[in-house]
């Protein structure tokens, strides 16, 4: 942190969309900490190259989502429910983030989200590779690692599933989020293919997100969607049979702030996708802890996996880790790490985390204040 940033309480700025839930919750946390409101840099301006940072500011980069105009500027489509355009979204988004990084370097401002980290976090192939290199358990994947294969369409997916002996896989857009375009695909011999997905395909072949998980039962249906998704880049990973809670498949979203797991929520579903906006429901965290201990593990070991995943992105203050428990709650793998995985309203910190009573945004503000205090102490003669 620069000397100008250490002369008093941090002066905060946030790159975000005016009126968004994320910016609102962050501003609430800033006010609750007794700080002046964070200065807002709208994504609309940033995407036009208008990035004006001040010396000594501490800058949070927030999601550009939930704004149809910003989505159009990033993806080049007019309907925010469309799936296509994620590669263009990624190129324009990461270019804008690099511009924020350059402006911060020039102004002497401090970024809470590293541009390099963000570029990796928003490419599932690169993220998977970084986690694997860091020794974090991840599902096997033919599209990441030193021998990664490119995927041009359904024929490649089908061949990789056969060659790697993966009869059940998740096929994901490399740059997607919120389960957009994700397909859980199963094969059981020639011509026997089925999939679960929230993608809908219209008569013209255009793809749309819906809030309903659909079952596809023919190879023709599955192949048509995969072929339409492939130009934007695809990531494939082994479909790990998940543990269950009360008859529903379960996984966890764990938020890690400044290296420490602070918040966790259990997500359960009757479909392979547990995202809450797709009909998933919050499960019971105490039951998860008990199941882990019954299986011979400890809750601290579970959280340590998430902290190791976050450590692969050292220039980013906060990430949300999607943790996949295998059947029986005996082992865990990291499915994804999310740069903007902290939108969990009203969820307070885990016991012993140091964030008790704080939501995910308040925990981040507290971490920023703690960093500033530690810097002042370390630089005091």
Task: Describe the protein's architecture and organization.
Helix content is 33%, strand content 24%. The chain is α+β, with helices and mostly antiparallel strands. The strands form three sheets. Strands 10, 11, 12, 13, 14 and 15 form a six-stranded antiparallel beta sheet that branches. A five-stranded antiparallel beta sheet has the order 8-7-6-5-9. Strands 2-1-3-4 form a four-stranded parallel beta sheet. Strand 11 and strand 12 (260-269) form a beta hairpin. The longest helix has 22 residues, at 86-107. The protein starts with 10 loop residues before the first strand and ends with a helix.
Q: Give the uncertain stretches in residue-range form.
A: 1-6
Evaluate the radius of gyration.
21 Å
Instruction: Give the % helix.
Output: 25-40%
Shape: globular
Distance between the termini: 17 Å
What structural class do helix, strand and pairing data support?
A: alpha+beta
Tally the helices.
11
Tell how many strands the DSSP assignment holds.
15
**Largest sheet descriptor:** 6 strands, antiparallel
Strand content: 15-25%
Element order, helices and strands?
EHEHEHHEHHHEEEEHEEEEEHHEEH
Estimate the mean pLDDT confidence.
93
């Amino acid at each position: 942190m620069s000397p100008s940033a250490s002369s008093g309480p941090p002066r905060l700025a946030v790159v975000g969309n005016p009126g968004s839930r994320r910016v609102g919750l962050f501003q609430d946390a800033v006010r609750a900490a007794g700080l002046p409101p964070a200065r807002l840099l709208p994504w609309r301006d940033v995407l036009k190259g208008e990035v004006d940072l001040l010396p000594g500011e501490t800058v949070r980069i927030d999601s550009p989502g939930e704004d149809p105009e910003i989505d159009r500027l990033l993806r080049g489509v007019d309907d925010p429910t469309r799936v296509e355009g994620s590669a263009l979204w990624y190129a324009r988004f990461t270019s804008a983030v690099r511009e924020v990084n350059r402006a911060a370097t020039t102004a002497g401002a401090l970024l809470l989200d590293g541009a390099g980290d963000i570029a990796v976090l928003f490419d599932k192939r690169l993220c998977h590779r970084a986690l694997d290199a860091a020794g974090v358990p991840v599902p096997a994947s033919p599209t990441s690692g030193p021998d990664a294969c490119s995927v041009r369409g359904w024929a490649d997916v089908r061949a990789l599933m056969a060659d790697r002996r993966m009869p059940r896989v998740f096929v994901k857009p490399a740059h997607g989020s919120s389960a957009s375009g994700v397909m859980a695909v199963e094969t059981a011999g020639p011509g026997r293919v089925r999939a679960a997905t929230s993608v809908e395909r219209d008569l013209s072949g255009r793809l749309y997100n819906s809030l309903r998980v659909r079952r596809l039962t023919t190879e023709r249906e599955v192949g048509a969607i995969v072929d339409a998704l492939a130009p934007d880049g695809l990531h494939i990973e082994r479909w790990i049979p998940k543990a269950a809670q009360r008859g529903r498949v379960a996984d966890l979203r764990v938020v890690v702030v400044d290296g420490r797991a602070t918040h966790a929520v259990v997500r359960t579903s009757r479909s392979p996708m547990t995202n809450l906006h797709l009909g998933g429901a919050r499960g019971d965290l105490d039951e998860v802890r008990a199941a882990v201990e019954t299986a011979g593990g400890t809750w601290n070991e579970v959280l340590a996996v998430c902290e190791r995943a976050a450590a692969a992105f050292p220039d980013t203050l906060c990430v949300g880790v999607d943790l996949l428990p295998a059947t029986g709650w005996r082992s865990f793998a990291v499915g994804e790490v999310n740069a903007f995985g902290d939108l969990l309203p009203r969820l307070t910190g885990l016991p012993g985390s140091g964030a008790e009573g704080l939501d995910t945004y308040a925990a981040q503000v507290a971490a920023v204040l703690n960093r500033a205090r530690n810097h002042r102490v370390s630089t005091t003669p």
